[in-house]
Amino acid sequence: MHKMTLRACGLSKLLSAVLLAAAVGCGGSGLPSLTGTVTIDGKPAPAGVAIQFSPIAEGGSPSYAQTDEQGKYEAQFSFNKTGIQPGEHSVKLIPGSVVTPMPEIGPDGRPVGPPPKNPLANLPKSYWEEIEVIQVDAGSNTHDIALVSE
């Protein structure tokens, strides 16, 4: 009986270590993680640029991401689950993801200077169909997305 207790204890520790490693390596969601930075013409993209990662293989579910003020993103599988399915993914922008800032209004109630431009206005239209195809592996993945204006 003593040997069986030691084996069960050792197996329990091994199983705990494997589960902990899986949770740490996959962001705790059971899925690989994907983070990176989006740049436009070499500068960090503004907050709010939305990206879709669609699996190439049939039957997969897309993940989405949105940039912060430094252009950084983290893929979200669902509203409350971070991560992305492993495999090849088509990457594209989601239209309407960045709101054009309001113009500055002067004391007379009229806009001052030219109206602000949408930071995505000069990007190739193909970016809304596909920017590139990336490979996502198990564990932590990092992929920067460099966008270039036309």
From TrEMBL:
Residues 1-21 form the signal peptide. Keywords: Signal. It comes from the Bacteria. This is Carboxypeptidase regulatory-like domain-containing protein.
